[in-house]
């Protein structure tokens, strides 16, 4: 009927508005009473469940579980509360080896990051450490049937890299907790110390720059410790020393060249001497008796000995 549809649309709009407010006070007495009733109903509805937190959530990795993520300020979560309580009773009545659990994201923000919860309420089916998100009807009978008839087999499990107990999702959980801690500091600076919003942001910006510089310095020190820089083989010398070394090298090259030339001359003389010995005597007796002939031979021999000695 048109009247009923309008009422339903109004109710949905009010629910969305309340979810956007996230549990803030309305400033009226009726709002306070409604908020108190919601928290009371949520507490009663979860009395039969296991309340999970950062310390005990790993127990759902064994056995079969239905896990709900909720927040006390969320109207849709509170609307699901009676069905969730009935789910626990139906599971016990039918002797299903299934447990129900609930996570308050306001108390355990790390778990909401670990499970990548983007909407409330969110329901997960867990069986032997394999996670599947339940997206079926939110009444107790449908959820019991989902478990009893193994309807979860038709649901694609979460990939291994998104498994809540994986290392990378553990890092995501820490980041979520860090963000919540920073948000608390931001609220404290504004509410307790009366800083304006821009003042709080300025403090966060300065702290971010300082921490980044400190971490960068630590990283450079660690890299230098693990991989120390190589020492340069170059030797620093003065210009005079460079000039002296050049002259010394030049002198050494000249001496080597002189020795090479002397060796060439020496080899030529040795060949001539061998040729004279092997050839018939072509000198006359007069040449032998000529003064100074023996002296020339002795001079050549002394020169060869001197060159070899050098």
From TrEMBL:
Residues 41-152 form the Thioredoxin domain. Residues 268-279, 287-301 have a biased composition (Basic and acidic residues). It holds the Pfam family Thioredoxin. Keywords: Disulfide bond, Electron transport, Endoplasmic reticulum, Membrane, Phosphoprotein, Redox-active center, Signal, Transmembrane, Transmembrane helix, Transport. Coiled coil: none annotated. Its main location: endoplasmic reticulum. One of its GO terms (molecular function) is disulfide oxidoreductase activity. It is a single-pass type I membrane protein. Residues 263-310 are annotated as: Disordered. It is found in: Endoplasmic reticulum membrane. InterPro entries: Thioredoxin-like_sf, Thioredoxin_CS, Thioredoxin_domain, TMX_domain-containing. The chain crosses the membrane at residues 198-227. One of its GO terms (cellular component) is endoplasmic reticulum membrane. This is Thioredoxin domain-containing protein. It comes from Danaus plexippus plexippus.
